[in-house]
Amino acid sequence: xxxxxxxxxxxxxxxxxxxxxxxxxxxxxxxxxxxxxxxxxxxxxxxxxxxxxxxxxxxxxxxxxxxxxxxxxxxxxxxxxxxxxxxxxxxxxxxxxxxxxxxxxxxxxxxxxxxxxxxxxxxxxxxxxxxxxxxxxxxxxxxxxxxxxxxxxxxxxxxxxxxxxxxxxxxxxxxxxxxxxxxxxxxxxxxxxxxxxxxxxxxxxxxxxxxxxxxxxxxxxxxxxxxxxxxxxxxxxxxxxxxxxxxxxxxxxxxxxxxxxxxxxxxxxxxxxxxxxxxxxxxxxxxxxxxxxxxxxxxxxxxxxxxxxxxxxxxxxxxxxxxxxxxxxxxxxxxxxxxxxxxxxxxxxxxxxxxxxxxxxxxxxxxxxxxxxxxxxxxxxxxxxxxxxxxxxxxxxxxxxxxxxxxxxxxxxxxxxxxxxxxxxxxxxxxxxxxxxxxxxxxxxxxxxxxxxxxxxxxxxxxxxxxxxxxxxxxxxxxxxxxxxxxxxxxxxxxxxxxxxxxxxxxxxxxxxxxxxxxxxxxx
Length: 524
Description:
By secondary structure, the protein is of the alpha+beta class. It has helices at 18-27, 50-64, 94-100, 112-125, 152-164, 215-218, 360-367; strands at residues 68-74, 79-84, 104-107, 131-136, 141-146, 170-174, 180-181, 189-191, 194-196, 200-203, 209-213, 223-224, 234-240, 247-252, 262-264, 268-271, 274-275, 283-288, 292-307, 310-318, 330-332, 337-348, 352-359, 370-371, 520-522. The chain has a 6-stranded antiparallel beta barrel with strand order 18-19-20-23-22-21. A 6-stranded antiparallel β-sheet has the order 12-13-14-11-10-24.
């Protein structure tokens, strides 16, 4: 086989039946999360898309501090539910700020610290192959699972440990099948007799093209090919498994390899705009070389899984099915956010099952990589608007959406503006400096604001001169949200170029990006 330059994301190949699954799974996501009947503040609860809810959850976790006890997305109501504990001493009114931000706030019994302590007890007393536990914010408990291999004395041990935590701290259930990493022999990416799936193309810290896959694939073989018995095209640079994660960075051998951040589902190509934290209750899609495209929901976070090969921590638990050979494959959202890498699970895609994923954000931070082959920014095509305006937005300067009336809504798309904050008279206003938009009651996202409020960065070092905190998002001195990221044609093309990734690696070109705003482009 000749040494290939990968010009499309080739290693994730649609298996039989993917064509039928692709459009339905991506364009018609299910909304089957249950609503919670906890104490509410319905008058101020905002309707949010899943990606926006995930962003808000991350901000509120930082703002609430020790009071934060988890969150989840109610897909049926399209609301973010935030758990709070120990709120009696809430001197700073952060809970009220969370309500003003648009979250449904629910007071619960178990704090994050108490749930973590319970997980430590399970680790010390019941680390048994075939068991797992994760935080379930819907029940405010640990969800403990034992597979079919946990019987007799091992079952008695895990069950008694769960009972010792108290009835309000954890629940235990049995699952069919056996927990295992999902490696197989077959077709996709091959190494040392093993078959795995490519997760996401990334830019390594040294600027070279690379991809993420499962760590147990990375320790199984050093070199990987894109065809069975073919010549190697990539070499493992870093791999973690078992232990604090299940991820590997694999660098392409050909320095001229072009590796765009996108997922090819067979009939459609989903452009990946950014990495995102998982939120319980959100709908997710999984692509793998054995079973193709499947969807489901996030069930739990910070999961510990006791594989026969060893214990892995910090995973995402889902009800998405997977089978051997799907390991390393991508977990993502319909609007192009990278969420996870397939680790392992139990069951199959006939009878159903559960699968655990390595968070992409953690993997990227650990290996020092960024999404895409350009490395600069997350602008461009995917996003909720399908083009340059929308969730990705333009860069600093003139970029981003258009908000002539300053109501925080993109005048072209009708979507809330995330990222490019407000210079001059437009965008967010924060007169009291509490990080909450005085007009909307929502936390201010993005950098901000020369002029009427938000962050101030006179020296351009990315640090807010008032708070000493790093500024998140694009800073907007100058013309604010004028016209840099304007999507004039609705086809994902940045007409002026001011909000475009200057390296050419962040934004889609004309014609890429659906006019329906789905963030899905047709494969060519």
